[in-house]
Write a structure and sequence with these properties.
With 275 residues, the chain is an alpha/beta fold. The protein has a single domain, classed as Alpha-Beta Barrel (TIM Barrel), CATH 3.20.20. It is built from ten helices and twelve strands. It has helices spanning 14-24, 42-52, 74-88, 124-132, 134-141, 168-171, 181-186, 191-198, 225-234, 255-273, and strands at residues 2-5, 28-32, 56-60, 92-95, 101-108, 112-119, 144-148, 153-155, 158-160, 177-180, 202-207, 240-243. α1 (14-24) runs parallel beside α2, α1 (14-24) crosses α10 (255-273) and α2 packs across α3 (74-88). The termini are close together.
Length: 275
């Protein structure tokens, strides 16, 4: 099935994104849960789904603390998202691995800015919980938590990994993974080889291209996503392929243009992966 992440148009309301996705021909939605109550109210989400005649197939757990009304602890945020998924009928929740670093920005008047990366104490509870509790959670709720591979971030001439458990060998320790194509591209590694290394764990895909910027339209970038989708088809991939973009890549603000680009994206997926 081909779904659209509402994060692709996070500057829009959920109902508007649902209508656009349905009219473009997507099979379903992935809800990016964030600080807006509309993304966390199960009754409202069910109403939006019914109104647009498009199901909610997956949720993306909030990835920053300080969301009003939700606990700041990663485990609590994720388990609440799993409960929300159960209420709206979604079978998959996407989660990030533990954060390893945070950005520290200091500003000295009048003109000097200093940015640095500082290590965080290892988030032992969340790290341990991800490694030991996911299968029991799936068995108890029917909802699969699929841990997502994360991008590299440039620091000077090199790349740093802001996340723990984010290398291929570590990701293979999780029972279920979300494979993000644009995130893989930031590391400069071969997309298909990276997928093959963890293919038996991948139950969910975030599809977008990379042209120096992440989350571009499937045909706009350095990755041959047509070949990648054909590989998924040959391997019998049975999960959901979620088109996850950035608002600027679709011309947000002009709904005619947005609709055209959404149609291009879903048509690309149908042509290379099938129905």
């Amino acid at each position: 099935m081909i779904a659209l992440s509402t994060g692709s148009l996070f500057t829009y309301g959920i109902a508007r994104v649902a209508r656009l996705a349905a009219s473009a021909g997507f099979d379903g939605l992935e809800i990016m849960v964030d600080d807006r109550w509309d993304t966390r109210d199960p009754a409202y989400l069910a109403e939006v789904s019914r109104g647009a005649a498009i199901p909610i197939l997956s949720l993306h757990a909030p990835f920053r603390p300080g969301i009003e009304g939700w606990a700041g602890d990663e485990v609590d945020r994720l388990t609440r998202t799993v409960d929300l998924a159960r209420q709206v009928g979604a079978r998959t929740v996407v989660a990030h691995p533990p954060v390893r670093y945070r950005w520290l920005a200091l500003r000295y008047p009048p003109f000097i800015n200093l940015s640095a990366v500082t290590p965080l104490p290892r988030r032992t509870r969340y790290r341990r919980w991800l490694l030991t509790e996911l299968e029991a959670l799936r068995a108890g709720t029917g909802v699969t938590v699929a841990v997502e591979n994360m991008p590299g971030h440039r620091l000077g001439p090199g790349l740093i990994d802001l996340f723990d458990l984010n290398e291929i060998g570590d990701l293979a320790r999780f029972p279920a993974l979300t494979f993000d194509t644009a995130h893989i591209a930031t590391w400069g590694v071969d997309l298909e080889k990276a997928y093959q290394a963890v293919a038996d764990r991948v139950v969910h895909v975030h599809l977008s291209n990379y042209n120096g910027r992440q989350h571009r339209l499937p045909h706009d970038g350095r990755l041959d996503l047509g070949d990648f989708l054909a590989l998924l088809r040959r391997r019998g991939f049975a999960g959901v392929i979620v088109v996850e973009l950035e608002p600027d890549s679709m011309g947000a603000g002009d709904d005619v243009r947005v609709h055209e680009r959404l149609v291009q994206a879903v048509t690309f997926c149908r042509e290379h992966f099938g129905r």
